[in-house]
Structures are given as structure tokens and as C-alpha cells.
Design a protein that fits this description.
The protein has 170 residues and is an alpha+beta fold. The protein is built from four helices and ten strands. Strands 1-9-8-7-10 form a five-stranded mixed beta sheet. A hairpin with a 4-residue loop joins strand 8 and strand 9. It is elongated and about 60 Å long. It starts with 7 loop residues before the first strand and ends with a strand. 24% of the residues are buried.
Length: 170
């Protein structure tokens, strides 16, 4: 199922054959009153990853990581809707987190992709309710593009870094 970019928030990503640039999205910047921004630069020629962050408008942090220090790419999905998280009926709110696990076992968060998820029938729906009762909700359900966008981001990271996908918290 294809999602709508209007129902998701994720980084703005630009890439080429041996480079990738990603920045916090404009909607995310507006939601934080421009107090938090993240910039990611991956350069295949110099084989470095540079992460720049701005916190609370003035505090700036920068971290550089060599390709050889990356063990694997972390990819995690969380449901931020409290009701569907505990198994009740409703629409999920997806949060895909992407990060890196380094050789020293530390984890480095890169970006999160947020958006409206899909309809989920939970344990709270009465067992006597037939499936067709939820057909309208399932048929006209709208979801965001966060799943597709995060997958494309992961594929580009794997192509540039040449490391596998791993489990963990991003």
C-alpha cells in the first residue's frame, strides 16, 4: 500500500552515487520552533559520516564517524498510539527509527520517520462483530509514506556503508 507524504514527517534526503545528505524536515523544525535541527552528511570518497545537531537554538554538536567504525545499521518500528500499542482497535502511529551500531557497541541515532499507520483490529472488538463491519475503515484507511521513505533511506545507507542491517534500539 502506498502512503501519503502529507501524513508523515521524515528527513529531507538527497543522494548521489557516493554521497548522501539528510536534514530535519521543515514540519519537524516548525513543530520544535526551530530549536532542534539535525544534519547528516555521508561522503563515500572520504569514507566519513558527519552528524551535526543544533539544540535549543544555540548549542551545536558535531560527531564524525569513519565507515570502518560502523558495525551495522539499526532499524526499529514503534507504535506511538497508546491504544493500538496495547492491542485495541484503531489506527497505528508509526515511528521508524534509523541508527548505526558502532564497533564499540555504542548506538548512534540518525533519524526518525513518523506518520499515520494502518487500521488495526484489536482484542477490544467484540468477537461477534463480523469482519465486514470493519470493511469501510480498512478500505478507506489512509497512511503515511514513512515506511517507504525509511526503507529507501536504509537501502541507500547499506549501499554506501556496505554493512548489514541489525537489531537494536536506534
Amino acid at each position: 500500500m502506498r502512503g501519503s507524504i502529507l501524513l508523515s514527517i521524515g528527513p529531507r534526503v538527497l543522494s548521489g552515487p557516493d554521497w548522501l545528505l539528510a536534514t530535519s524536515s521543515l514540519p519537524a523544525a516548525v513543530l520544535t520552533l526551530f530549536s532542534h535541527r539535525r544534519y547528516l552528511t555521508i561522503d563515500g570518497r572520504s569514507r566519513t559520516i558527519v552528524i551535526r545537531r543544533r539544540l535549543l537554538w544555540f548549542v551545536r554538536r558535531e560527531r564524525s564517524v569513519a565507515f570502518t567504525d560502523v558495525k551495522n545499521i539499526l532499524y526499529e518500528l514503534d507504535d506511538l498510539n497508546v491504544w493500538t500499542m496495547i492491542g485495541m482497535t484503531g489506527d497505528t502511529f508509526d515511528c521508524y527509527k534509523v541508527g548505526l551500531r558502532l564497533q564499540d557497541a555504542s548506538e548512534l541515532h540518525l533519524f526518525s520517520f513518523l506518520g499515520a499507520g494502518t487500521f488495526q483490529r484489536g482484542w477490544d472488538s467484540a468477537p461477534w462483530m463480523p469482519d465486514w463491519f470493519f470493511a469501510v475503515e480498512s478500505t478507506f484507511d489512509m497512511s503515511g509514506a514513512q515506511s517507504i521513505q525509511s526503507s529507501q533511506f536504509i537501502e541507500k545507507l547499506q549501499e554506501l556503508l556496505n554493512v548489514p542491517l541489525g537489531r537494536g534500539t536506534a
